[in-house]
Amino acid sequence: xxxxxxxxxxxxxxxxxxxxxxxxxxxxxxxxxxxxxxxxxxxxxxxxxxxxxxxxxxxxxxxxxxxxxxxxxxxxxxxxxxxxxxxxxxxxxxxxxxxxxxxxxxxxxxxxxxxxxxxxxxxxxxxxxxxxxxxxxxxxxxxxxxxxxxxxxxxxxxxxxxxxxxxxxxxxxxxxxxxxxxxxxxxxxx
Length: 190
Hints:
This protein starts with a helix and ends with a helix. The chain has 190 residues and is an alpha+beta fold. α4 crosses α5 (122-148). The chain has a four-stranded antiparallel beta sheet with strand order 1-8-3-6. Strands 2-7-4-5 form a four-stranded antiparallel beta sheet. The protein has a domain at 4-120: Jelly Rolls (Sandwich). β4 (59-64) and β5 (70-76) form a beta hairpin. It has helices at 4-13, 20-27, 85-90, 111-120, 122-148, 151-161, 165-168, 171-178, 182-189, and strands spanning 31-35, 40-42, 50-56, 59-64, 70-76, 81-82, 97-100, 104-110. 48% of the residues lie in helices and 22% in strands.
């Protein structure tokens, strides 16, 4: 079993300094969740009140259009955060789904608890602001890559940033993430 407290502590400590007492207090607002491969965390239409920190495993955030075509928005691996942020922050129903590609262990924190500890500990608010900004930057870079680069470049870029994905994630999901067919992905991998 993973040491969830140490993983979260190490993650937060990379970006801000907290005392051991503060870290214990922050950790006390998280709940440990164990999920099986294929299990859903968020389904389209759900109300979303939590965000999730991945300790072990891999999850995917995705959208299904009216034709049931899947669009992968994010793969969430250890030390990554995932939720339907639109639904969480705007208190609307989820428009995306989040489920497990592998067995996973995650920590969850409610929106209320996150806001509470951010108001109480300035360094925690700094951490969450930094983390949110990093997510916005990553989303912008991905969108710009889609607009400016061909599939081969996007594939090479993905593998250079996350080499473990190719062996961890089924190929049809990588194809969906890249916006190509499974056949095109096979050609790109040659």
